[in-house]
Specification:
Elements: H1 2-43, H2 45-61, H3 67-116, H4 119-122, H5 128-165, H6 178-201, H7 203-214, H8 219-228, H9 231-283, H10 292-330, E1 353-360, E2 370-377, E3 382-386, H11 393-400, E4 408-413, E5 416-417, H12 423-428, E6 430-433, H13 444-449, H14 459-469, H15 472-475, H16 498-511, E7 516-520, H17 528-539, E8 545-549, E9 561-566, E10 569-574, H18 576-582, H19 585-598
Parallel strand pairs: 3-8, 3-9, 6-7, 7-8
Antiparallel strand pairs: 1-2, 1-4, 4-5, 9-10
């Protein structure tokens, strides 16, 4: 049984290696081959130099010493060492470039996959651990796993080469001259400073990149991305940032390689002189060299390579577990299958929605969150949902926007089952503001224009959206107006209050000019005067259906229909006057809010 398990583990390790290497191979095959060749050359460095030293020892031990042959071997050794060191430097820097490409590649793959997965998948308790592991360590572990394939190749070739010469003799002398290594120290300090400055100067870009990437990591941003269909736009921003970082780093690593090679030539000149001195000492008979040195070097090389090979395999297995998690993540499929070939809603069609005996639970082992919920909102109507926290209001919104499918019952859009609707045409008609709305650290115009990235940015659309949302009240106070960067993290950026951020988010909804508007606590952070203006503007728009969720009853009392949600059911419905006459839950809650003002 144990051997069978080990076989499965080795099989998974090989499969993961093929997956990671194959993912990079298609676009970087030339660089990967170059690095593999450099690894092979580097791994035979020790036996090659030991062999040349052995020839020198043999020449020195001969009864008749051929001085010209000996110095020719010394020159050959210095040339070979210089070549090998150059190969190793280039290999190291090319490997860094490959590591950065692996990071870029898998960052985009992970972000793309997150954008493809629906809210129900992101909120699934069974997948939370997997998503967290991929987010926390998936990329770095993938980089290490990729590089260690080359480490294993290095160790394997080294073991084979050492085994081939382990029975022969070896001598290796390496002298270090401090004075001639100082240029190398300066080069490393200079190159390191340049790289540090590169990372320091890119911090604003990196924050923007992190901000964009963050919107695939929480539900509010994901829901808006789905409804506004901005995933391709955001992925484009991610790809542009990663390309810029990749280009900057490649240039710095290439420069460092050139400088290192120059310093290497200088330092190896000192090495050649040192070797010539000690060879001369042997010729003069001042010191002796035995074949034991060569044997020891070969044995030590064999031992080190074999130990490193075993350690590499151990680390590779550990990282393979993380790569397996990554592959499980990539294999996930959205639970909500898009109906791209379904019924296409007309571009001027105002949306009406109906729930028929809808019940819903988030997982099979969990209780029902909604039970036999039925209601309808006609095209152009204004409907509000009220109730205590946890009563099921947010779940109704998620079902309404098809973030989930109902467990039972039907949801109809203009008389058609929502599962039969072309989902892109439906989302094109939608505007959505969640409680956990995104706060894009962009300039104001780009922030507002995220409401519809499919159309060109125009002053007319920006002004209209800002006016309807009330964001014009503070945008017009800035000299840069819509060119102002939002977010105090940036030089020249402005720090917005919670209410101002909410109005910017609402401006995105209006910029979209939707025909079906869903607003979840749209004025929770704004003052009463601004709230009244926002809702006055909202009520004037007759070309859209509006769904409101709010705990502030003053904002929803003018709705055409008000639905009271309690324990996953619609307990009351009607307009404000009708519900007040019923003297039920709505009347009680409304009175509680109004009493402090009346008294």
């Amino acid at each position: 049984m144990d051997s069978e398990k080990r076989g499965v583990r080795v099989k998974d390790l090989l499969s993961n290696s093929a997956f990671i290497v194959g993912s990079v191979w298609n676009e970087q095959k030339k660089l990967m081959c170059v690095v593999a060749i450099l690894v092979v050359f580097s791994s035979i460095a020790s036996p090659l130099t030991s062999g040349i030293l052995g020839l020198i020892v043999n020449a020195l031990s001969a009864p008749v010493k051929n001085v010209s042959e000996i110095f020719l071997l010394v020159i050959t050794l210095v040339v070979v060492l210089s070549f090998i060191y150059t190969v190793q430097m280039i290999r190291g820097d090319r490997m860094q470039i490959l590591r950065q490409y692996v990071k870029k590649k898998f960052e985009m793959l992970v972000a793309t996959k997150k954008s493809e997965l629906d809210v129900s998948t992101h909120e699934s308790p069974d997948l939370n651990d997997l998503l967290q592991k991929v987010s926390d360590a998936g990329i770095s572990r993938t980089q290490d796993f990729f590089q260690r394939n080359y480490d294993i190749l290095w160790d394997f070739v080294g073991v084979c080469a050492a085994m081939a010469i382990v029975a022969s003799f070896n001598a290796w002398i390496l002298l270090l001259i401090v004075a001639f290594t100082l240029p190398s120290l300066w080069i490393e300090m200079y190159a390191g400073n340049r790289i540090w400055k590169m990372y320091s100067n890119r911090i604003p870009k990196w924050r923007k990149y992190s901000e964009v990437r963050r919107h695939f990591n929480y539900i509010g941003g994901l829901m808006e991305t789905i409804v506004f269909q901005t995933s391709r736009h955001l992925l484009g921003l991610l790809d542009k940032s990663l390309d810029d970082f990749f280009t900057e780093e490649s240039q710095e690593y290439r420069l460092r390689t050139k400088l290192r090679i120059r310093a290497m030539i200088f330092s190896y000149l000192a090495l050649g002189l040192s070797l010539a001195f000690f060879v001369n000492e042997v010729i003069l008979g001042h010191i002796r060299i035995g074949s034991l040195v060569f044997i020891y070097s070969a044995l030590q090389g064999f031992k080190s390579s074999l130990t490193d090979l075993f350690m590499s395999f151990g680390r590779q297995y550990e990282d393979s577990l993380f790569v397996s998690d990554m592959r499980k993540f990539f294999a996930l499929e959205p639970k909500i299958q898009k109906t791209n070939n379904g019924i296409v809603l007309a571009e001027d069609e105002i949306i009406g929605i109906e729930f028929r005996n809808v019940s819903f639970r988030y997982a099979d082992h969990l209780p029902l969150v909604l039970s036999n919920v039925s209601f309808s909102v006609g095209p152009g109507e204004i409907a509000a949902f009220v109730g205590k926290s946890g009563s099921g209001k947010s779940t109704i919104i998620k079902l309404m926007l098809r973030m989930y499918n109902p467990t039972s019952g039907e949801i109809l859009v203009n008389g058609h089952d929502i599962r039969d609707i072309n989902i892109d045409s439906f989302y094109k008609a939608c505007g959505f503001l969640s409680q956990d709305y995104p706060r894009y650290r962009f300039v104001a115009q780009d922030n507002v224009a995220m409401g519809n990235v499919a159309i060109p940015i125009t002053d007319e659309n920006l002004e209209r959206a800002a006016k309807l949302s009330g964001a014009d009240q503070f945008i017009n106070q800035w000299p840069e107006r819509f060119k102002k960067i939002l977010g105090k993290e940036f030089v020249g950026g402005v720090d917005l209050s919670g209410g101002e951020w909410q109005r910017v988010a609402l401006a995105r909804v209006h910029y979209r000019n939707p025909r079906f508007i869903v607003l979840d606590e749209p004025t929770s952070s704004v003052d009463v005067e601004t709230e009244a203006e926002i809702f006055e503007n909202l009520m004037k728009q007759n070309h859209s259906t509006k769904i409101l969720v709010s705990h502030r009853f003053g904002t929803i009392k003018n709705s055409d229909r008000i639905f009271v949600v309690k324990d996953g059911k619609i307990s009351e419905s009607g307009n404000h006057d009708e519900l007040m006459q019923q003297e039920g839950i709505y009347a009680h809650l409304y009175t509680l809010q109004a009493t402090p003002f009346n008294s």
